Amino acid sequence: MVEVETFVYEKKNEMLQLIEQLVNIDSGSYYKKGVDQVGSILKEKYEELGFVVDVKEEKEFGNNMVIQHKNAKDPKIILVAHMDTVFPEGTVANRPFHIEGSRAYGPGVVDMKASQVELIYAIKALQKIDSKSVENIQIILNGDEEIGSITSRPLIEKHSIGKEYALIMEPARKDGSLVTARRGGGRYEIVVKGVAAHSGIEPEKGRSAIEELAYKIIQLHKLNDHEKGISVNVGIIEGGSSVNTVSANAVAHVDIRISEMEQASYLEDKIKEICSTTVVSGTEIHLEGAINRPPMVFNEKTEQLLHIIEDVGGEIGLKVKNTATGGGGDASFTSATGVATVDGLGPVGGNAHSEEEYLEIDTLPERTLLLAKTIKRLS
Prior knowledge:
This is Carboxypeptidase. With 379 residues, the protein is of the alpha+beta class. The chain is 35% helix and 25% strand. The strands form five sheets. The protein has a six-stranded mixed beta sheet, sandwiched between helices. A four-stranded antiparallel beta sheet has the order 4-5-18-17, with helices on one face. Helix 2 packs across helix 5 and helix 9 crosses helix 11. The longest helix has 20 residues.
């Protein structure tokens, strides 16, 4: 495997050039043109390596792709990586890819355009030693992970069935840790309709939507149980038309997080119950949303997979750590189908989703080597 290590480290600058190309394409989840442009570049790279790319066309969001080697028969490893970012069109023009010291910066540089490049070069490294393990992988590249994998979730779940291992390419944590557990969750929108009235002349004729929503917010926040990993947060509220008008409308946007799937039905029932009646007579409530991401649970299968990756890390002098995170991700979908799943196999970085998002450049070759050798070991 010395040849593989030499290859990976020699290709660091070449990898950075491809990362720069991808980062300098706006590919926010709602900017289909940009996501598909990234997809076209990646499609070409995989086809050059002898892979077949099945593009799943989408009308509203970026296309998804299912990729495997032309000689693959029944691959047992699924890898998932997303092409979209959280940044809208025009972001690149304001802050394109750039390097400062040992870090690279730019929109989506670590979440997860560097991971896309890492995956391609891990495959190249395996092919350098004529490894047939590249025939044992199936890759899903999706274009809507940052908005809940609306179109790609069924695709991920479908192709997870029958697999033995799932390697998810989200970036490693700031300390280099892999991710072995994620909380599940969902979003709700509560719309309250009231009756407008002048608050000075005839307030008695009004029915305040904001007042009703305030009661609901208090009840919702009482559902929090942080010891059990249940989080209910009303993060955005909107309402009213002017300060001297009894509000005829109010809206709350609610974020839900769970640690166990059994908590989902409990919370869904409680939220529906809270929104089924009103305190302020004359107001109406409309509830939309659902808990749409199952939690990724650290189970025996995942623990066994983690130990294999730890052992591979030891071979290349890399101490592999793991952690749990409250954020959601596509690992939840593979885990929920019963596949041993480990996330965070991308390079190390931090401050994702912000203007300060960065990639630790020196982790590119080591994480590429870790991924390549893990695929070989699992095959």
